[in-house]
Amino acid sequence: MKQENLEHTIEQLSVDERKLLMFKAKEVLKNKTVLTNPDAQKRIVAYIKTEVLLNKEELKSHLKQRLPDYMIPSSINVIDVIPLLPNGKVDKKKLQKLKNTEDSLETFESDIIEPKNEIESTLVEIWEEVLGFSPISTNDNFFEIGGDSILSIQIVAQARKKGIHLKANQLFENQTILELSMFTTAVNKDANAVENKIEIAGEIPLTPVQHWYFETHRNAPHFWNQIIDLQQINTTSSKIFEDISKQLISNHEALRLSFNKKDEGKWQAFIKPSNEINSYLEFNLGSEDSVSSQNNKIEEIVLEIQENTNLSEGSLFKLIFFNCNSLQSNRVVIIAHHLVIDLVSWNIIVQEIANTINTINNDFILETNHNKTATIKDWANYLDKFSSSNSLLEELNYWNSQKNDNKNFPTDYTSNSHIYLENSIFTQHVTLDTEQTKLLVHNANETYSTKVEDLLIAALIATLCDWGNLEYLLLGLERQARNIDTQDIDVSNTVGWFTSFFPIALNYNKTQGLGTHIKGIKEELRTIPSNGIGFGVLKYLSNTNTSKLKELQPKVIFNYFGKANTNEKNNEVGFKFMESSTRDMQSERNYEIEINTQIINDNLYVNWSFTKDLYKEETALILTEKFIENLKLIIKYCITQDNITYTPSDFPEANINQDDLDNLLGQF
Description:
Layout: H1 3-11, H2 15-28, E1 32-33, E2 44-48, H3 56-64, E3 75-78, H4 92-100, H5 118-131, H6 149-161, H7 170-173, H8 177-182, E4 202-204, H9 208-216, E5 225-231, H10 238-251, E6 257-261, E7 267-271, E8 280-284, H11 291-307, E9 317-323, E10 331-337, H12 343-357, H13 376-386, H14 390-393, H15 396-400, E11 420-421, E12 425-432, H16 434-442, H17 452-468, E13 472-480, E14 499-507, H18 514-526, H19 533-540, H20 547-551, E15 556-564, E16 574-577, E17 588-589, E18 593-600, E19 603-611, H21 617-639, H22 658-666
Parallel strand pairs: 2-3, 8-9, 13-15, 15-18
Antiparallel strand pairs: 1-2, 4-7, 5-10, 5-16, 6-7, 9-10, 11-17, 12-19, 13-14, 18-19
Helix pairs in contact: 5-6, 9-19, 17-18, 17-21
């Protein structure tokens, strides 16, 4: 068939049929992914046997108009014969040898697509810094090479510092550097900064997550903190940290928040002027005669500070300098109430501290937040306005449709209460080894175009539903609210608590195969509107009748914090969380089981929390081990599949179900 006739035939197809044809072409034309280096990232390489004269660049251009960028082949090889095994399948080893011979038309050195302009070059540098490896090709898919929602926010913030404007959720829409570069332009580095020459102070509305907090934490609302211990601070000057503390308070309105309980029992948020806030404390531990005694004294002081916190005073952020004399390096501990901070905020704050310390040899110019985005007051007002929007009301049917019959969720003991205290909690920690974690991050998501969180949740649902003989689980999820899909506000570089809590009923059928289970979980997670933000806005801010939403009470909550790297190896300022004594022991817990996951230095860490009022330690051990076993099975299954499988969410505009999609793909 001549090339013009082929093009005419394709043009006669509908938009969706053409899109499906291009996807299926990877199988028909024997596109295969080959690793030439065990430590390298997988890339799509096309091997084509055809009688049609092809222009490779035109073909790539044609594919880019019809395929997501992560499905574009890195290189295209036209070959005379496709080597086959006796069973008719493609002989990948012979393909590998063919590519490495001088007869190959194109070598794999071309797999890395180099940046073609200044914006692409800058984005490559940022991706390599945030993701922690190189080289990165401009057609690498962010989520397939280890990216996640929290890292995406860091990408946006770093780009902003380099003068490149990206929307907060842009990496979800344009997942490669090639795509990003087409939807952004270089701007003045200060053009995106929010101009606030007059310091903001006064009342602001509570956000949904703050409403949730005061609704569910009544025993000791003042004592629910996050604490970090700075690493590699490389300075002995307490004066530097006193100045840093003042600068942070001035830069970030959230760190000046106070909360007052009104006569009717409702809470009110108030931003205090920076001159009314004392956030710096200093202690000399010279009287302690050993490192262990100094560390014990630090824990005592940190606990006492937390116990004496007063929400109405506004001292919810404390930077504490401990002079340890010659026994050990000086310690810097920072305490912040969770009402004013989240994980992304810590990254912003520590980066400012690092930048300031790094200027010590340059006449000590304090780092100011030139790249600050919208204020927390802007955010609170935006959510208040969003609460009466038509787009939010359209979400109500989705949330009302979530199933809520969790009566059959198993426990070892019975309890008449649905509220449990911190002093009843015990934890089980489990780790996925480095090799398996790398497979999870870099390889396993290619088969179904999933994210790490999808596969973690798939393993969790299989674990809990098999154990409890359940057909579905109402799971509580936490998500970053900064990734909101709007151009009306950007809080990617703003300090505060930007978390959305919401429930979702995830189905499970133990008779189905792993592939069907993974696809089902992926599709259910993709249906969540507005990244889950709308649930809290409807429940706490909207005037609409949301009684059904208040009945949705998950017994299990899951959170994936993404990928983090401590900076110990490169000797940069970093931080570690202090886990002990961050919450009052009488503080309430509203879930029977809580699972927190994070990848740190190429290992997946999974922390399960159970209440001893309901569960035995033996049960906790069984569940944690079964979860890792299921996760390994999912990873192995995904990386051993020969073909990429598509699901309806890969075609968001097609309005097609999985059966019809499979039938259409089968026609090509």
